[in-house]
Design brief:
The structure is a single chain. By secondary structure, this protein is an alpha+beta fold. 28% of the residues lie in helices and 11% in strands. Helix 2 packs across helix 7, helix 4 crosses helix 7 and helix 8 packs across helix 11. The two termini are 38 Å apart.
Amino acid sequence: MKFTSALALSLLLSLGSAAWSADLFDERARIERVEDGAFAGTLSGQKLQVFRDMGETLFTARFTSADGAGRRMATQAIVPTKRKREAPAAFQRLAGMDANSCASCHRDPKIGGAGDFSANVFVSEGFNQADFDTTDPQFSNERNTNHLFGAGLIELLAREMTADLQAIRHEVLVEARQTGGTVRKSLATKGVDFGTIIAEPDGMVDLAEVEGVDTDLVIRPFAHKGVMTSLRQFSVNAANHHHGMQAAERFGARWTGEADFDGDGFDDEIGEAEIAALVAWQANLPAPSRLDDLEKGDAERVANGERLFEEIGCASCHRPALPLDSLTFADPGPVDAAGTMRPGEGSDRRYDLTEAAMDLPRNEKGQIMVPLYGDLKRHRIADRQVDGFGNELLAQRFVDRDVFQTTELWGVGSTAPYGHRGDMTTLHEAIEAHGGDARASRDAYLEHSEKERANLIGFLRTLVIP
């Protein structure tokens, strides 16, 4: 049985999560499926809450082989890729599947949070086959799990910044054509500088001076390298990689010509509406906040630490807040790549992220100030002397090995350990490891007294997941 939109709403409003709970005699994580197209259009109120609850149930579900978990004849690759031979085991730490629940890794300090070192994943960039069993860095990059709180707001910021950058590209091309000369324009959005774009009258664009973003000028705000465009893309990728649950929109007949791409006897293991429910739950997770119940002496030290954070230049990349114009979240989003559902290809949904932005301030223009402590830009973060973050041997999506997107610091007080590998136990170690573009700020931090450094650390530890 599958739930249609009307049936799902009426049943789930009356039954709560009962229809989604596995019973004693059934080892499936999901007894019922959500029909593709369910809960389409504008969602609000109780209807949105039910849809979000479905997403949370899917996020915490422990998928089993009775649901289609595992990928007998498919690899972890983002582009659907067949195995040369059947997988020797259901679970495989390097190339997955390596968990049967999203919540297995996203769990600290609560569901949707981060993961510790034991939950690390291996990004085997360039290796589509799972025919190796080593953690040697020449075969895979090891990554720690990021938290998802405020993720919907992050994606909305990225969409608006992408629109700004692409509008500048359009403007510079028009101006070059109209004037008949070379035109240079600064690529800046929301106070973040992405270099310079140069256009010629013949329509040629010089991108040599563009920095911190892909040449298509799409801000990809997720993953340590900033290579995932949306929560939808992230969810489709992760479901296959970690659980062996193939999303129909990429691994089904629409793209591969097969309903059972991995050959395990289960067709279309995760439907379009189920991915959408996962997205809705993640997008609506509240923004991290700050501890504000400090004693007077501690509050003064935290304030001093925050001032030091600004003075030594940390805030030039870890920007305290970026302005957001709109809280309307559309799924699918406007700039996803092929293989992820795009507007008009299935059911479009829209909902408001007001709850996720609860209590966030607005600036004088009425924009929501999102306190992410980041800039959604990539930076070179290692050099010859300080290379703590330069320990990877494989590039990912053509991003250099020592280049990473600025990690958003909101929630950092709740999500130890630190670093893209999760192998730094203190914030001091993480700061000390900053080289490259962050070298001057790192050196300035180390020049201060132990108490002043402790003040800065204390400030960071007030940035928590509520």
